[in-house]
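Database export, one record per block. Field names are fixed; values are copied verbatim from the stored entry.
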Amino acid sequence: METSQSNDPCMPPLTSSTAVAVDDAGCDLVTVPARQGLEAVDILRRGAGDAVGPVLHDDGGDTLGFVVPAGTAEGWDVPGSTCTETDGRGLRLNPEPPVEGSDWLLPPGEADLATDPAVLRRALGEAARMIEAADSCR
């Protein structure tokens, strides 16, 4: 697996405006801190037309992983997150968690096939702003 945190702000255009189907090549996984990820899931689930694909949660509670279409890692540049290419290896969408010590927060079959990276990018940005605002009020 390869990990990418590119500085290239350009991402290839997607053919869908919401959830994207995972093709035979597999999928990539965007990993974020759990707090930001949970906020992003809430944002995605209450958004008008914004869909969220399967989300993996590690049992240690430190991170969430969003399933995104293969190729997303090439242009992923969101600070504080990592996008891992699977090249069709490792992460497969079936009911069993693909990694020991993890579980599905939103399992395959109960969620869309994959989260649109552009929609996820916006949700993660909004989540980061919400967390920063909440923390500054303490």
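Remark 1: The helical segments are 34-46, 117-136.
Remark 2: The beta strands are 2-4, 27-33, 55-58, 63-69, 82-85, 102-106.
End of record.
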